[in-house]
Amino acid sequence: MKTILILLGMFIFILGNANEGQDLFKVTCVTCHTIGKGKLVGPDLMSVTEKRSQEWLVAFIKSSTTLIKSGDTDAKAISEEYKGILMPDNNYSDAQILSILAYIEQGGSGDGEQAVAIDILSEVTSINIESGAFLFSGEKRLANGGAACNSCHSVKDERIFSGGTLAKDLTESWDNMGSSGVAAIIRSSPFPVMNMAYSKHVLNEEEVIDLTAYLKSVSEERYYQRSSDFSLAFAIFGIAFFIMILISTVVLYFKRKSLPVNYDILSRTSKVVN
Fold first, then answer.
1. In CATH, what number does 126-224 get?
2. Rounded CA gap, 169 and 175, in Å?
3. Considering the entire predicted model, what is its pTM?
4. pLDDT at position 224, please?
5. Cα–Cα distance between 228 and 234 in angstroms, integer?
6. Of 115, 153, 166, 194, which sits with the fewest C-beta atoms within 10 Å of its C-beta?
7. Rounded Cα gap, residues 54 and 94, in angstroms
8. Domain segments of the chain: what residues?
């Protein structure tokens, strides 16, 4: 009887872990990974607990970047296979990560159906998209004082006057990673430079949603955008500026030094002689 109770307790514990893991998987993992349904942004996770040790999986899920930098062969191979698209760091505890692994080990949910991703953009409106555009371009300051996105990034959007060239163009970022993937990178970037830039200027959840909504809009509207060409505008501005300088010069210096400096002296001399 005691043995049965112990086994029952273990089963309930494992089931509880798997249920927690399912909830965490829905929030964090499902946009980039499937369990037995093929590759997405990241690898299919079916049987991953058999291919990798528990210790390795916990370390990789917590910070894939750290493991790659350590020179781990398997981590580097995954990074190269997926063209350097790194998994964002996660602040989950070991217990929470183990619950996710327990859920994966069961092959997904108990009824055999894949968990459905939670769409963070399900209730956004055009106001969120507009706010995201302002945040991206810097017309609206981030609440914690971080730099505007277009300091380093560009997008194909004729509403944005200019963009940075220090980092990747984000026009197709939503297509590649989906809402949850984009939001995860904005919240906690796996890229060292971006991580350092925003470590003390963390974006709030409203800003994350607005920027994600904007990048989705950019991705969907990219085929309808004209290439940004400001050469005519710069030419008109240059001509107008030149005319303003010319008029200012004429107004300020009118009748000044219109005659030689020694004209008065010469005139007085001529009068004396006469």
1. 1.10.760.10
2. 13
3. 0.59
4. 78
5. 13
6. 166
7. 10
8. 2-105, 126-224, 233-273
Model pLDDT, residue 87: 83
User: What's the topology of domain 2-105?
Assistant: Cytochrome Bc1 Complex; Chain D, domain 2 (1.10.760)
Round to whole Å and give the CA distance between 162 and 152.
Answer: 11
Rounded CA-CA distance 21/249 in Å is 74
Find all residues with CB under 8 Å of 108, minimum gap 6, and list them: 35, 36, 114, 115
pLDDT at 158 over 60: yes
Q: Which of 208, 242, 72, 193 is nearest to 131 (CA)?
A: 208
**Would 2-105 and 126-224 be classified into the same CATH topology?**
yes
Q: What pLDDT, in 10s, does the model give residues 75-126?
A: 999 888 887 777 888 888 999 999 999 998 887 654 444 555 567 888 899 9
Tokens of 48: 């991953």
